[in-house]
Amino acid sequence: MLGEIVREAAQRFGDATAYVAADGWEITFRQLDQLSDELAAGLARRGIGEGDVVALALPSTPEYPVAYLALAKLGAVAAGINERLSRREQAAILDVAQPRLILATPDLAPSEGDVALTDLAERADGLFAALRSPEPAPPLPTDDPERPVAIIFTSGTTGLPKGAVYGNRQLAAITAIDIGDRWGGGGRGLAGTSFAHLGFMTKFAGNLRTGGTTWLTRRWRAAEALEQTATLRLSTIAGIPTQVALMLRVPGFDELDLSSVRVIVIGGGPATPALVREARERFGAPVTVRYSCTEAGIGLGTAPDADPEDAEITVGRPHPGIELTIRDGNDEPLPDGEIGEVCLRSPATMSGYYRDPEATARAFTADGAVRTGDLGWVDDRGRLRLVGRSKEMYVRGGYNVYPVEVEAVLAAHPAVAELAVVPRVDPVMGEIGVAVVVLREGFDRLSLEDLRSAGSGQLAAYKLPEAIELAGDLPRTAMEKIDRRALRERLQAAYTDINVR
User: Fold this and answer.
1) Which end of the chain is more exposed for a tag (fewer CB within 10 A), N or C?
2) Which of 191, 219, 247 is the last residue of a domain?
């Protein structure tokens, strides 16, 4: 699929710029096709062919899409490795993937395995210069909807990594749901997340079809992203809630000309109503929210022209072809209004976890829906409202507390820039909530009483935090999500130490 699409994109868009590297050089759609052909020929000479797994230990630079396309043209499977993961985490992924070959830059290369090194290029014709071959590329593999194309590793913080397998069928379904059958219409955007993530790996085909231009960064930073948005007159702000929140905190935000921004797309995690409202007001553009998970591929969303409330308090409605159900602990569907696990079924869901049939069986319901691990409920307008991860829920004195619900209310306090509510063991209540707060500029204190007062009219007393900790920032995972596990461990260790003393 990817091979055919990039060849047509090369014919349609030719010398139009597909990517702009962090240091300014460009690669066109025609070059994407040509260079991936030459890399495919070079990899074929090394024995790489249909079904072989090749790990991409590459940063989010033009090397990554060229390698991904080359592997697709050979019928091989790309296993992406997020460069921000620790060496231990990267080694764990390689242990699961067992790749035939690892394409890597010197700084990301593992110490074991068959590694093909490549330096980062300084211009398009330098991409994989030592690995490409001028010989004709092998013919594209026969059409097979079930052929694996990519392995996308979960960004969880516990247990062994799991690789979600996506094939031609899923990529075609996601492309059809996302953009239909159109060509062209692409805008100007900034890549803010790792290419090893679900977003790039599954939506690359759609990106090629729209023919837009994407600016790349070696490391996303809020101030630089905001400056580029203004200077390059970018039309879309796209990122996870953390990135949008950080951009809003950049000094001098209100002095920048951001009138080119037409829409803000937030995905990859829950956004609080306060964040959505502030982003809409200060960027002067509508906010849309996207919801899915690594295993589901694509899920729900809100429309730019929908009621603003949609993006503030919900993650929208299912995209066409997506079946949403809320289920209890026995996998029985629940009626609207009741909280349960969010499950998604569609042609876009993963084939399974790579080399892990037991985990695959646990990930799906008996009728083939993916268990997202998120808890939520469907309101009377058919919109999904999330309350948190099933593993994040805690029990205070016999009552269930969902952190996301609490955070959505408390984040509206004027002193709060960011916050996370995490549980801490308590000898009387079993667990209590601790609010870890990053203060806004201009504020130097926030008492627990003030924070509880802000939520007392909207939340039951048992849901309100019973301790507060002020922090300079919140720990993040490799995908820039709040690392709740690290917060829990830190708070519990501090609490244990105090009680021991």
Assistant:
1) C
2) 219
Sheet containing strand 370-378, edge to edge, reads: 323-327, 340-345, 370-378, 384-389
290 in a domain, yes or no?
no
pLDDT one-digit tens code per residue, 223-236: 999 999 999 999 99
Strands (E), 59-200: 77-80, 101-104, 115-117, 148-153, 163-167, 188-190
In this structure, the dihedral spanned by the alpha carbons of residues 191, 193, 195 and 199, taken in order and rounded to 10 degrees, is: -90
Q: Which of 196, 219, 242 corresponds to the end of one domain?
A: 219
Name the domain count of the chain: 2
pLDDT tens sequence across 279-299: 999 999 999 999 999 999 999
Q: Are strands 340-345 and 370-378 parallel, antiparallel or unpaired?
A: antiparallel
Which token pair is 324?
């949403």
Q: Is residue 15 one of the residues assigned to a domain?
A: yes
Structure tokens at 121: 């290029």
Residue 225: how many CB atoms within 10 A of its CB?
A: 22
Quick check: 399 and 413 in contact, CB under 8 A? Answer: no
316 within domain boundaries: no
What is the pTM assigned to this prediction? 0.85
- Domain assignment present for residue 212? The answer is yes
> What CATH number should be reported for the domain holding residue 180?
3.40.50.12780
Nearest CA among 150, 241, 210 for reference residue 16: 210
Domain residue limits at 85: 1-219
From edge to edge, which strands make up the β-sheet containing 263-266? Answer: 236-239, 263-266, 287-291, 300-301, 317-318
